[in-house]
Write a structure and sequence with these properties.
This protein is an alpha+beta fold. It contains 4 helices and 5 strands, in the order βαααββββα.
């Protein structure tokens, strides 16, 4: 299995980034774009949608291991993300094993703020590529057959 890629760094986040993600997700809660509303709710400013960090982690993981290989993706939201935050996505291979439908790999992923606080954690399972089995094409090599 491939080693984890270098961390993915995104930011600093702008309100425009947050609103663009909000529009794409369809979650138009004013807590994520309306300053007076967010302050009235007890926040310093509008905050990012938690799925923004989870989406960044999903991109990081599927770029690494392939979207077609995802089998399980469990998310835990840990901390709020604010305009001005820089997010870093990183992961590590936890284990490789044989599952009932073929080889699998478990990974742990984290999206952290510049403070070092984890904003989102993910535990995911991906199918691993199976070793190539000698097939007709390989068996025919060196025999002059095509």
């Amino acid at each position: 299995m491939n080693a984890a890629p270098p961390p993915l760094v995104f930011g600093p986040l702008t309100r425009t980034d947050i609103v663009r993600y909000q529009g794409a997700s369809g979650d138009m809660n004013p807590l994520h774009h309306d300053e007076p509303f967010a302050r009235a709710a007890g926040y310093e400013a509008p905050l990012a949608i938690g799925m923004l960090g989870a989406g960044l982690l999903a991109t990081y993981a599927t770029d690494w291991l392939g979207a077609e290989n995802i089998r399980r993706f469990r998310i835990r939201f840990m901390a709020q993300v604010w305009p001005g935050d820089t997010l870093t996505c990183a992961g590590r291979l936890v284990r490789e094993y044989d599952g009932p439908d073929g080889p699998l790999a478990d990974v742990e992923l984290a999206c952290t703020r510049q403070t070092g606080d984890a904003a989102v954690r993910v535990w995911a399972t991906f199918a691993r590529e199976q070793p190539a089995r000698p097939g007709r094409a390989q068996a025919a090599e060196g025999t002059g057959e095509d």
